[in-house]
Design goal:
Elements: E1 5-9, E2 22-25, H1 27-34, E3 40-41, H2 45-50, H3 52-76, E4 80-85, E5 92-97, H4 99-111, E6 128-130, E7 132-139, E8 145-154, H5 179-198
Parallel strand pairs: 4-8
Antiparallel strand pairs: 1-2, 1-3, 5-6, 7-8
């Protein structure tokens, strides 16, 4: 099995390091991405020295970004994001609410702080496919994390379905109709009978 190789990053690479970092990576990642894209080079003392100023600037930028993200998470804490979606009468969506949808919904708050809500920062395992209320984690890194509330509402009222009840023999238990529905049923039953009598 091939051993990891050391490379000097010439750009920031998320979840790997910042410009000027010497990192250990798998040979395939180096060969297929980092080296051909010019993102990293083989480290030499001269190259490391050349990138020192850029590294200092990158560290300052990262610290500023971390501060902005902390402020953003403070603003997001405890908010409820409401989305309206089309669904069937059981509350199953005719589409889904994805990480991208949630990120776009939060972008307005992020814009005020000069940040971008990346869908990768919305930590939901799968797309949401039902009407309801969900706790959604928003995480930038291990320390920077909060939960928001996502409320997915139907675009029209759902039909109220009464639960059917069965007795021990499996027979349906007939429930008395509520007054409003009883009147509707009686009106519907009497109408055809009146028509038959007149004919």
């Amino acid at each position: 099995m091939a051993r990891n190789i050391e490379l000097l990053l010439q750009e920031n690479v998320e979840n790997l390091g910042i410009v000027g970092d010497v990192v250990k990576v798998k040979p395939g990642f180096a060969r297929n991405f980092l080296l051909p894209m010019g993102v990293a080079v083989v480290p030499t003392p001269q190259r490391i020295a050349d990138l020192e100023a850029e590294r200092t600037e990158a560290m300052a930028n990262l610290a500023a970004q971390k501060d902005r993200r902390k402020m953003l998470l403070e603003k997001l804490e405890g908010i409820a994001l409401t989305m309206t979606r089309s669904c069937n009468d059981q509350g199953v969506l005719y589409g889904s609410v994805s990480q991208r949808d949630i990120a776009d919904g939060l972008q307005e708050i992020a814009d005020k702080l000069g940040e971008t809500m990346d869908p990768r920062h919305i930590r939901v395992a799968t797309s949401i496919r039902h009407i309801g209320t969900y706790e959604i984690p928003v995480q930038f890194d291990q320390e920077l994390r909060t939960d928001i509330q996502l409320i997915v509402e139907p675009d029209q009222a759902l039909e109220e379905r009464e639960e059917m009840e069965f007795d021990d023999d499996g027979e349906l238990i007939e429930k008395p109709l509520p007054e409003a529905k009883k009147e509707e049923a009686e009106t519907a039953d009497s109408t055809p009978a009146d028509e038959d009598a007149s004919a």
